[in-house]
Amino acid sequence: MRTRHFFAGLRAATVLCSCLIALAPTVRSQTRTSQPGRRQQPTLSLPTATAARAAAARDSELYCAGYIEYAPNYSALEIVGGEEEQEQYSYSAGDFVYIRGGSQQGVRIGDEFTVVRPRGQFKSKLSKKNGWLGVFTQEVGRLRVVEVKEKVSVAIVAGACDLLLLGDLLRSAPRRESPAAQNEDRFDRFADPNNKPLGRIVMARDHREMFSLEQVVYIDLGAEDNVRVGDRLTVYRKVGKGSVNHFREEEITPSASYGFESDVFRGGRVSMNAPRVQDPNNNGIHGPMQTTAKVKRQRPALPRKNVGEMVILNVQKRTATAIITRAVQELHTGDYVEVK
To answer: Residues with Cβ < 8 Å from 139, sequence gap 6 or more?
Structure first.
């Protein structure tokens, strides 16, 4: 018995040694290709931003972005109560709510609705369009009907962008597709205008005034300007415009008549901190001084400052909802946009 176990173990050891001998040339050949004295580093392939995210927007941007609707038409369906309303007045995902509308209004089990909250008419001094742009409508969640009575139905909050309140209105749930993510690596920061429709960012979601990547904004270009879902736009501003801080650009300049000298130390006829005279050909030392403000007033038109890109998610008559897909610095309301 012991002899049989011994020979079985010997056969297993022989097989293992044969495998190692077969692999040895491969290992040696790989070792010879490395440079002597240098430790081999592993190669790591990181996914690019485009590969990591095939879509420009997630569901939180597609279905929670809101829009500015020019001529809204709301149905009578609204949230009128909740299963736990004795303990709460707002509702979120998983809660049961009651809606005004049942079998008499054609509501059926399985129907899905988006919950909207009109916030009032919107106009902007940033837009060149006359009159108001529409009613800013907030999208706050989605409901799915689970029980239908004659005039009232029970629905579960399937998704919430914000807290749902009694009085929020219902609309048929839209089906939206996200445009593809930005797949161009090159961004021309000094590209010239292309004579396509121009507009401005008039507002951002959550009332932000400064924003960056993946933030939702609203622009004053819509169906009347022939823009469509998926259109890409360049975000730009004029050079020298759009600063969030306001300060004087005029330098405090000494007179050339006194050689730019310090009143105390008398350091010589020329100071390195003083600007030049406006007419350097007039003996180089006499006359009014050149300043930043004077240079800006007299210069030719400069290239515009391209600061980002966006893609349109939702189009209304006079406006559109978009998401920022590229930003080379902070963006803010009032920035200009141009269809690419």
So the answer is: 63, 64, 65, 66, 67, 114, 115, 116, 161
